[in-house]
Design brief:
disordered N terminus, 2 domains, Outer membrane efflux proteins (OEP), 9 helices, two-stranded parallel ribbon, 65% helix
């Protein structure tokens, strides 16, 4: 019991030696803080936000063609010609470089008052496109939040592994020192010292590679947060997994909140409105026209040297398609096929999402059980290493047995950390499918 307490104290001192200076030197970034930074800075989210703004701007009755068009126009024509006129009484008039000027300006208004209800279908479609942009923005946000959380918990896992490797290096150094002391007093061969040195170098090499991987993942997280890539930070120590998720509840949320399903249904509605606009081509188009025009002319030759007029003009134009090479029938058939395809895509998407949910839930259950198992394995491996270390110090176990216990302990820590990470990722995937990630 006393040896166990001494060993625990020894490991605690190692942790303090290795990690306290690092924690003091770096700010701890929580997963919630990382998500909020990404929501504010991430470039893909900003782009999707601007695209939604474009859809909102396009959603107007004017863009649908419901409002009149008002245009101002000005036309000024001048000519210089050699002219010859023969009148009915035989009189001939000629003039070289005769000038003719015409100035016309005014305001006109055109308003389509009926187009087979195409404009109303177009307006409904613009509303659906705005909804589509809104859902696409939400999907982008959900995807990026999931990426941030996954990368963050990957860092937590790697940080735990670095801690374990730091611990094993301290133990390997103690083993080397013990081997050297035993060699000096003649209780061990030089081979034992060399083996201890090789194992220490191996552990140091593994730690260096793990630290490199850790730093590159930090750069990846900074990239997702769209901030300075050299920003230094520390992540939290633990991963908390929600092991109470229920498939029935997740399925209910998926049917209501899954963004891929919502996009598929919106696409189907857009296709139906396209068909409605295509069918409008069978009906007449009626357009009102009016305007106020000013006209002034000057002529160097002729009965009238100058004229001017102004006034209101108005009228109505109606056009009715009669035959256009069967294009109307062809366009309607194509539009109907597009509606049918969009309905099939919606059904396919529903089946795909349900399959993803069922598969992800099974993975989640497995990973949760593995996390519990590996936590128990780590505790067993730790106790085994403590006992082996005590025996090694008094020389009752060979070096290879101690090294095996040491490696088993480190591997158990790595498996435990990875199992928690995988369980957390499974949880995030399920919440993403259900459209229920909190941020």
């Amino acid at each position: 019991m006393k040896k166990h307490k001494l060993m625990s104290k020894f490991l605690f001192q190692i942790a303090l030696l290795v990690f306290v200076p690092k924690l003091m030197a770096q700010d701890v970034l929580t997963v919630d803080q990382a998500v909020q930074i990404a929501l504010k800075n991430n470039y893909d989210i900003k782009i999707a936000t601007n695209e939604l703004s474009v859809d909102q701007e396009n959603n107007s009755i004017g863009n649908a063609g419901m409002l009149p068009e008002v245009n101002a126009s000005l036309t000024k024509n001048n000519s210089i010609q050699n002219s010859k006129q023969t009148q009915s009484n035989g009189t001939v008039t000629e003039r070289d470089n005769a000038k003719n000027n015409r100035l016309e300006y005014g305001v006109s208004l055109g308003w389509t008052i009926f187009d087979g209800l195409r404009m109303f279908a177009r307006y409904d479609q613009l509303k659906e496109l705005e909804k589509q942009g809104d859902v696409q923005l939400k999907l982008m946000v959900l995807t990026k939040v999931s990426d941030v959380m996954t990368t963050y918990y990957d860092l937590v896992q790697q940080q735990q592994l670095i801690k374990a490797l730091d611990t094993t290096i301290v133990i390997s150094k103690q083993r080397l020192k013990t081997a050297e002391n035993r060699f000096l007093i003649g209780k061990a061969a030089k081979l034992e010292v060399l083996n201890a040195q090789v194992d220490l170098n191996t552990d140091s090499s593994t730690l260096l590679k793990q630290k490199e991987f850790y730093e590159t993942t930090k750069i990846r997280l900074n990239e997702l947060l769209a901030r300075d890539l050299t920003t230094n930070f520390q992540v939290t120590e633990e991963v908390v997994v929600d092991d109470k998720l229920q498939l029935a509840e997740l399925k209910s949320m998926t049917e209501k909140q899954n963004l891929q399903l919502q996009l598929a249904l919106i696409s189907k509605r857009v296709a139906e409105l396209d068909l409605k606009q295509t069918k409008a081509g069978r009906y007449p188009t009626v357009r009102l026209n009016t305007g106020y025009t000013f006209v002034e002319t000057e002529s160097s030759l002729g009965f009238t040297s100058a004229t001017s007029s102004r006034g209101l003009n108005y009228g109505l134009t109606a056009t009715m398609p009669i035959f256009n090479g069967f294009s109307q029938n062809r366009n309607e058939r194509i539009a109907k096929l597009q509606v049918e395809n969009s309905a099939l895509v919606a059904e396919q998407q529903k089946q795909t999402v349900n399959a993803q949910l069922a598969s992800a839930y099974q993975t989640y259950l497995t990973n949760v059980e593995l996390a519990k198992l590996e936590e128990s394995n780590e505790a067993i491996a730790k106790k085994n290493m403590e006992i082996t270390l005590d025996k090694f110090k008094i020389g009752t176990v060979p070096t290879i047995e101690f090294r095996n216990a040491q490696e088993n302990y480190i591997n158990a820590i790595a498996r435990n950390s990875n199992s928690k990470f995988q369980a957390k990722i499974s949880e995030i995937v399920l919440q993403q499918i259900a459209g229920n990630i909190k941020f």
